[in-house]
Design brief:
Elements lengths: L1 H11 L4 E4 L4 E6 L3 H11 L8 E3 L3 H7 L4 H10 L4 E6 L16 E5 L4 H10 L3 E2 L14 H8 L19 E4 L2 E4 L5 H5 L5 E2 L5 E3 L2 E2 L9 E2 L9 E5 L7 E2 L6 H17 L4 E4 L8 H13 L1
Helix pairs in contact: 1-5, 2-8
Bound molecules: threonylcarbamoyladenylate (TXA) and magnesium ion (MG).
Magnesium ion (MG) binds next to loops.
Protein name: Threonylcarbamoyl-AMP synthase
Function: Required for the formation of a threonylcarbamoyl group on adenosine at position 37 (t(6)A37) in tRNAs that read codons beginning with adenine.
Pfam families: Sua5_C, Sua5_yciO_yrdC
Amino acid sequence: MAAIHEAAALIRGGGIVAIPTETVYGLAADARDSAAVARIYAAKGRPSFNPLIVHVPDAAAAERIAVFDDDARALAAAFWPGPLTLVLPIRAGAGIASLATAGLDTVAVRVPAHRAMQALLAASAAPLAAPSANASNAISPTRAAHVAASLGASVPLIVDDGSTTAGVESTIVAGRTILRPGPVTAEMLREILPVAPGTSAHISAPGQLATHYAPRKPLRLDAVAADDDEWLIGFGSVAGDDMLSATGDMVEAAARLFDALHRADASDRSRIAVAPVPEQDIGAAINDRLRRAAAR
Ligand code: TXA
Ligand code: MG
């Protein structure tokens, strides 16, 4: 398929592509490339960074990025490929961009059962981070025309392979807890494991993380210079100990945000300060994360 070759070339170049899975159309990027992942958030106009699902071709590839226990292996054996997402500890050195997991130490991983997504995984040889391919707060797309209507010009390529079959987003399971109901039902899961619906320590409501990664140290916003014992994360003309984007590039700043916060936490300074970041475009998501981090 010519479209898959074009899509794989875009992915390898750090771009984004809309592609169907068996559930909904996803907006995919190389999960190891933080700038590419930032382009997903920018295109969706998300006001905050939700961790994304990482799609891989098979269970062996999933084991290279996540740490499986016996429960997870049993679910994977029963339902992959298919509309089940497992939240698991991230494997050290797996190379998944921290923006894809919103800085968490877990990763949501799934093996999709769709020829187009599987073909793109093979052709790009990359784990693909992909949320649903709709603008933030819009309805999930089940046809290429939905993607075009919702995201239009902000997506360079929509691979059209007809309507999706499952139509709702994948079931998400963490341990023995169903975080999001989906096509793999509780009854189906219970034939394998005694799962229960619920929330995890990280989640207050489906899709809503109560605590994304937040630094341990106090954080001050809109800083133009470092105070005593502060680690200053710069932006644009405000230089510091670290830099989100010297040129004021918002996508670059988003791509660097979580790594910069991790570095600040690990530094020898007791406090963190961050330069002002404009509220426009993906800056809204950057500032949302920073305000939450500062409020702790
Ligand atoms: O069917 C699907 O799952 C579709 C297709 C494209 O694969 N994708 C999808 O992605 O629905 P998205 O971003 O719309 O939903 C991902 C959900 C969010 O609710 C997010 O909070 C949760 O997965 N999630 C991702 N990583 C997580 C983590 N480490 N811990 C807990 N929840 C996580
Ligand atoms: Mg969604």
